[in-house]
Every structure is written in C-alpha cells, then in structure tokens.
Q: What sequence folds into this?
C-alpha cells in the first residue's frame, strides 16, 4: 500500500524530472533557438556542446557565444538575407554522444552548416563525422596537434595557434631573462589530455633548448582531483619554474591549492587554462594568491579587435557580466563560418567554403586569423598575467595592457 | 624517508575523507541491496548547499554540516518515498538504473539553480596546513578526518546500540523474520536510505572546501566511492574505512614513487587482486546468494 503522501512525493519527483529534463537543454538555451528579424527560409546551423558533465562550464559559455552571434547576425538581416537558427545538442562531455549528435544533426535535423564543440577531446571524433560528410567544421576550442595530423580538408580551428605553440611568448620571455633571473630548473605538470599535454610539452621543449634543466615532468590523469602528492614531489625538487598543461578550470586550481598547502611557490609559474577563468579562478584560490601567475589567452575584453565592442555590448546586455574566453572563442568560430559563407555567397558547396577559408584571412574578435592546409591557425596567443587582482596582457608589447611583468612571482599569501 | 612518511600521511588524510564519503553508500547497500549511484550527485548537491550557506549567511562550511545534514536527511526521505521504494525487492541492477537516472536529474536541477560555473568555499583554512618539523598536514583534510571519525562512530553506535540499529540489522539479514518480530521493513528502509543520504551533508562540506565543483563533478566521485566499498566489502562500514584508507595511501604512494599517470589505476589493480583472493572484499561477508548460482 502506498500512502497519499507517497503519491504526492512521486508527483513531486516527476515534476522535478520534467524541470531537469528541460534544464539539460542548457539553461533554457538548448534546442533550436529563434530566428530574429531576417526573412526567407532559415539557415539551420548545428552544434553539439558539453552542456552537462565535466566540460559543462566552457560548454555553456560556448553556447552563449554562438547565441550572441546568432542574435547579432539576425539583427543585421541574417546570413545571405536568410534568418539563422542554431540547433544545439548536449553531448554530456562524452566522446560517443558527440559522434551520435553530429550524425543526427546532419542526417535527422538536416542542418545546413556545422559549428564545432568544445575541447580537443570532443572535437577529435566530432570533426571526423563532419569530414566524412564533407561538411565545413569550424571549431572554437580544440588545439591539439592530433586534430591537424589527419589531413582533413574541412577542419578549421578558430583561435590563434595550436596547443604546442600556446606558450611561445612565455618561453621566449623566460629564455631571454638576464642570467640572474633566468630559471635554471623547471617542473612540468602535463595532463593526459590532447590539449593540456602538448602545451606543457611545447614549453618543456622550448625551455630545454634554452638550457633550463628539467627536474620533474610527470603526466597526470585528467580525473586527478587531489594534487597534494604531486605538489609534495615537486616541492622536494625546488624548481625555479613550474608549467602546467591542462584543459578547464579545476586542475589548475587544485594544483595551486596543493602548492599553497605544501608552502612552495616557484619564481615563474605558467598554467595553461585555469587562470583565464577570471573570478572563478581568483575565488577558488584567493585573489591575493593569483599575483604573478602567467597564462596564454586568445581573448581580452579590452582588445581593440574588429567587432569586439559590438560583441561585448551584446554579451554584457544579455548575461550581465563580462564574457569568458570560451564564449569569445565560440563567437569567433561563428564569425569565421559567417565570413566563409559571405565570401562564397552560397551554402550549397561545402568544399568551396573550405577552399575559401584556406585562401583568405578572417577578421574576428580574436584578431585576424588564417590557416595552413590542415586547418591549423598561424598566429600567436597573447601572454597574460594576474597583476594586483587584474588580468593583464603583458606580451606582445603592441597588445599589452600593462607595462610591467611581475617577476619573480611573490610567495603565496597563506 | 621524510618524503615516504609525508606521502603516507597525505594518503591517510585523504583516505579519511574518502571514508566519510563512502560510509552512506555502503550503509544503503548493506541494508537495502540498493547501489545508490546518485550518492555522488547528492554529495555535490550538499557541497552546493554548503557553499550557499557560506556565501549568503557566512556560515563556516564545517559548522554548516549541522544544517546540511538534516536537509540531506529530508532529501533522502523524499527520494526514498518518491522513487526508491518502488524498486524494493528488485535486483540490485534495477537500483543502478534508477539511481543513475536520479543522478542525472539532480545534476540538471543543480545546473538550473546554481549554473554550471565552478563554485568553491574558501574559509581561512581551505589551503593552509599544520606544520610539524619537516611535515605538513593540510587543515581541511585533518578536519575532514575528524568529522569522518565522528560520523562513522555515530553510525556504528546507532547500528550497534539502538533499537533502530537492531531493526536495521534485522532487515538487512532477513526481511521476513524481521517483519515477524514487529519490524516494519519499509520504515526501516526509508530511515536507512535517509541516514545514508544525510552523511553526504558532512561529505559535501569537505568536498566544497577541498576542491572547486560543478554539477558534473559527481561522476569522478561515484566511481571512486564504488571502488572503495567494493574493495572494503560491500555493506561493511569498517570495510569502507579500510578500503578508503587503502585507496588514499595507494594513490599517494603511486603518485610519488611510480608516476601520477598510474595513480588512478593502481587502486583498481589493488581491487582486482583483493577480489581474486576475497571476492566479498576485505571485510565483506559471503552470502548464500554469492555461492549459489
């Protein structure tokens, strides 16, 4: 016998299920989003994003970037005079689901164009689906060298450089320091991740060539939560410089916390992704502990790049905060797609769209982008550093927002 | 030598935290034969509650346990009445499917309420340590171990010395006989499930201090917790403690002396070896149904 209370609770749970199912679409933005003011048959663009699971944080940010682009394009009369619709599926941060999603977008939803997903991990299989269907695939976040070693013709990465070159400016800066400041020893902490690993390997290769001795270099599994033992092992080697390669926010925060606990602060500290997460990063390790931490970044809110003001105004108006880097990267990917469509003047021939991108440069909010024959971008990331609680661009000089570089990094505050 | 002792200390401390998180899971399985895959999601839910009380009312995350524990008890009771009771008596595999669905629902609800951005509670002790000579003891882990000890002793005392505990043990051993002596198995199961879920109040508080978390963080935790209770012996509280400490120490030693790359794998190798020798886990009890095919 089930009591009336039991039935009511069951109803409540069922209602929660329904609410959550709606939420799994990505905070109201999932599914097909509207068409704006342009006329004619809509152009349908499909993307699968990690709106839930491990990469949900950047996945939702990327969705916001796509959404802002769609709104602005439709406000300006659409693409080729047709309104734009974006169909977003949630891949749950899962490699198998992302493949299913892109197949479904192409075969069932019959989308006209594709946009990429987030992370090298998910873009690797997803881009293969696009290539098999000979569809243009512009992706906002997948810089692993593996992406570009497969001879794909329709793949384009819409950031400035691939993972091994993410920290080129940092390596140049550290290698060129005066002898009394130049690091003599370094520890590398690469994640077993198609993006994070190559970032740290790229730094290690560059610094070893500059005579910096490697005292610790151990790959860690991406599911690592507790970095206490790693930090303890690194502290025992007393490296001047530490460089971590990882994707997302958590790994960097967890390593920082463990280094604070063991009480070891390197003179130079580079982290691939975490420090770019603005206040999420500073809240997680304490603002006073961010001082002097370096990272490479594709986007800065104050950048005088083409279209940035329009993007920034629209993003701030809609989401009441500054855009995270992942939202800007997604917006830039959509800008690249838009440029190709406008350049060719049609969406019927995807080969022609890819050929156009191979032969042209595109102005985006990340700056001007161009690609080699594999779809790898040919520009350089900005080198950023946390200074007095703010994120500053320190190199290259022409884009810098701060005249100084904090060196050496001060000790942790607790 | 210093590094070896430090590694073991770090392993035991994180093992203590794991034990706290695994205690509710093993209690629920031991009594109800329910593998609660949603325990990880409930842990993260409790972490969000802790964060919320800390952020909005300035309540210290560890003191917040006094508020989150009763809330999680009620959540557990609602989940039992709304979902779990419908599968009573069904095979454990049914509970895996149902609770996995619940985990997804809870993840979705957390995403709506708190968004998918990262959250972290950072009280004064979140990244500081006690120091003793060359050794250091991260404060959050030390406090986590004390809370784990408290929760485990309370659970043990409840099972051992109270009428409810005797009823719970009776139901876990033989439902029909328990009913004959006046125990209401449905009530006992509801209470057990609620108590098991209530332990995430303390676990979630520690998680919120130790690591930043998002709604999707539960996947990593549930796989680790299931590993711990399988190693210790499913349904055994002392087994969960032994399994958690073994997991913590083997992770840390592997990181320091072999490679971090192997750190998440070696504990599972240990599990396989233990299960080959003792299929019921280190402190598990072999049941008739385990040997009769």
A:
């Amino acid at each position: 016998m089930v009591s009336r209370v039991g039935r009511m609770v069951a109803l409540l749970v069922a209602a929660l299920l329904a609410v959550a199912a709606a939420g799994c679409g990505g905070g109201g933005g999932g599914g097909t989003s509207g068409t704006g003011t342009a006329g004619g048959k809509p152009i349908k663009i499909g993307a699968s994003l990690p709106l839930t699971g491990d990469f949900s944080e950047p996945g939702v940010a990327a969705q916001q970037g796509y959404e802002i682009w769609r709104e602005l394009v439709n406000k300006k009369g659409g693409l080729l005079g047709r309104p734009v619709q974006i169909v977003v599926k949630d891949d749950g941060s899962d490699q198998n689901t992302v493949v299913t999603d892109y197949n479904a977008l192409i075969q069932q939803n019959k989308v006209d164009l594709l946009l990429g997903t987030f992370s090298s991990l998910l873009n690797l299989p997803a881009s293969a689906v696009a290539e098999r269907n000979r569809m243009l695939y512009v992706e906002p976040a997948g810089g692993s060298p593996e992406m570009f070693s497969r001879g794909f013709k329709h793949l384009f990465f819409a950031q400035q450089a691939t993972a091994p070159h993410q920290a080129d400016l940092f390596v140049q800066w550290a290698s060129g320091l005066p002898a009394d400041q130049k690091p003599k020893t370094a520890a590398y902490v690469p994640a077993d991740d198609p993006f994070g690993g190559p970032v740290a390997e790229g730094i290690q290769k560059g610094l070893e060539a500059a005579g910096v001795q490697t005292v610790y270099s151990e790959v860690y599994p991406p599911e690592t939560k507790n970095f206490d033992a790693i930090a303890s092992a690194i502290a025992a080697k007393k490296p001047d410089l530490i460089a971590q390669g990882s994707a997302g926010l958590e790994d960097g925060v967890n390593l920082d916390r463990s280094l604070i606990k063991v009480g070891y602060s390197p003179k130079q500290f580079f982290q691939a992704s975490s420090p770019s997460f603005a206040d999420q990063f500073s809240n997680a390790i304490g603002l006073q502990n961010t001082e002097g931490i370096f990272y490479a970044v594709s986007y800065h809110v104050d950048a005088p790049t083409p279209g940035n003001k329009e993007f920034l105004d629209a993003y701030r108006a809609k989401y009441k905060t500054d855009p995270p880097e992942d939202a800007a990267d997604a917006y830039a990917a959509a800008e690249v797609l838009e440029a190709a469509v406008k350049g060719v003047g049609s969406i019927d021939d995807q080969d022609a769209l890819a050929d156009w991108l191979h032969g042209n440069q595109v102005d985006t909010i990340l700056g001007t982008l161009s690609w080699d024959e594999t779809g790898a971008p040919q520009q350089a990331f900005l080198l950023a550093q946390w200074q007095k609680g703010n994120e500053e661009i320190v190199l290259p000089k022409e884009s810098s927002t701060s005249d100084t570089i904090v060196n050496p990094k001060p000790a942790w505050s607790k | 030598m210093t590094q070896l002792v430090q590694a073991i200390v770090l392993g035991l401390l994180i093992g203590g935290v794991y034990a706290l998180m695994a205690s509710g899971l093993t209690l629920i399985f031991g009594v109800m034969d329910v593998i609660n895959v949603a325990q990880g999601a409930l842990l993260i839910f409790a972490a969000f509650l802790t964060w919320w009380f800390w952020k909005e009312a300035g309540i210290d995350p560890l003191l917040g346990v006094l508020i989150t524990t009763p809330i999680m008890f009620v959540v557990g009771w609602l989940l039992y009445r709304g979902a779990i009771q419908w599968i009573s008596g069904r095979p454990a595999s049914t509970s895996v499917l149902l609770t996995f669905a619940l985990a997804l629902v809870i993840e979705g609800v957390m995403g709506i309420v708190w968004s998918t951005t990262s959250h972290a509670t950072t009280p004064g002790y979140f990244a500081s340590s006690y120091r003793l000579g060359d050794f250091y003891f991260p404060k959050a882990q030390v406090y986590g171990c004390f809370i784990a000890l408290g929760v485990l002793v309370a659970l043990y005392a409840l099972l051992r010395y109270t009428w409810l505990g005797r009823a719970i043990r009776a139901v876990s051993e033989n439902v029909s006989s328990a009913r004959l002596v006046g125990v209401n198995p449905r009530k006992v199961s509801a209470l057990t499930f609620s108590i098991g879920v209530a332990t995430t109040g303390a676990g979630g508080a520690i998680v919120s201090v130790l690591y930043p978390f998002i709604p999707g963080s539960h996947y990593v935790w549930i796989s680790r917790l299931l590993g711990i209770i399988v190693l210790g012996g499913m349904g055994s509280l002392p087994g969960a403690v032994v399994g958690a400490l073994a997991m913590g120490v083997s992770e840390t030693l592997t990181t320091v002396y072999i490679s971090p790359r192997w750190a998440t794998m070696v504990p599972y190798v240990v599990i396989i070896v233990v299960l080959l020798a003792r299929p019921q886990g280190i402190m598990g009890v072999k049941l008739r149904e385990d040997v009769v095919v």
Notes: The longest helix of chain B spans residues 2-32. The beta strands of chain B are 129-132, 135-138.
